[in-house]
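Lab notebook: predicted structure, single chain.

Context: the supervisor wants predicted structures on file for every construct in the current expression panel, including those that have not yet been purified. This is the next one on the list. No modifications to the sequence; it matches the entry in the shared construct table.
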Amino acid sequence: MKATPTDPIDLPLAGVRVLDLSAVVLGPYASQNLAEYGAEVIKIEPPEGDSTRRTGPSTEPGMAAIFLGVNRGKKSVVLDLKRAEGRAALLRLVDGADVLMHSIRPQKLAAIGLDPETLLARNPRLVYVGLHGFGEDGPCVQPATNIVSNSAITRSTDDRFTWRWSGSQASGMHDETSSKLGR
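Prediction complete. Output recorded below exactly as produced.
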């Protein structure tokens, strides 16, 4: 029997194991693409599930269309990383993984002993991917908030884009960010 292009063994990422600890859309969409190229993707969710399970229309609770759309073709496991048993289970998965991708704040991972140094010491061939809208360090990382949702971008009469911050969380970043967005 001749193999077809959809046979998993013929796909370029066949045999690659990806642990996906990401949430919402960016990470799940990226790992879905890896699954479509043949990778075995294991989506790891907290007990309450990915927040997109409850975002938008759904035909049954916890299965919103956006969640289903960016998580098809994956295996799924629930691990409570706040508990020692959950962290131990994740570390066992890391031992056999090729890629770990997440969208968890680096400070939170470090606090529970799942920082990149620890994981890479355990599995030196692991490709560690942090998916963060504002990077892992620098002035925009703290506080843990969606800065864009707490601000507005306006266009002035001189055709420059400017951040308008609501609240004092981002004090000191207005001038730097405005100059980066200017044209």
